[in-house]
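Checklist before submission:
- one chain only
- standard amino acids only
- sequence pasted in full

Submission:
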Amino acid sequence: MKAVIVDVPDSLFAERHRLGLDRRDEVWEGVVHMVPPPTWEHQRIVDSLQFLFRGYFLRNSLGTICSALGVRAPSKSSLSYRIPEWFVLAPGRQSLLKPESSYVDEGPDVVLEVRSPGDETDEKTPFYDEVGVRELLIVDRDTLAVELLRRASGRLMAVCPAPDGQVRCEGLRAGFRTVQKDGRHALSVFLELERTEHFV
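Returned file contents:
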């Protein structure tokens, strides 16, 4: 369900903040999008991938994974930002993280979004393109299908899977493909530097 409220009272924002309900709220060109909490399956996928890649990144010095932070358009400041599931900054780019800031003001190397039915994942793509995200990885909550967009010729463009169905994310140094495991969809994640396969 979507609703538009004109002239939202400050008391509503204050109450949402007090209750911790605004953690995922976004501002799209001056319009507040109040994002509901994720389902358990949505969050399971997010947490599983984050746990897997945090260890992988630490062991191989691949950069920094950031969650619950906003990606902001520098020219628009607080008037336009999105909050992905998590994002990656490659080594040497950690200076973009400011201790006093809740945002990164330049496109991360990789952004992860998990798409759930009826959400606004697809509508975020132009914003991520505008701020210079290098790779956008989208995982479908229900089918675990994977889409990868990579910056080429100055814009995000879809990456075609290999013949085996795997898509390779350069910034994560990993390959992803949807498989059947134990009678259900599963996400196969191949960690290139360690040559190991994991399932989500």
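Reviewer check: Helices lie at 10-19, 40-60, 121-130.
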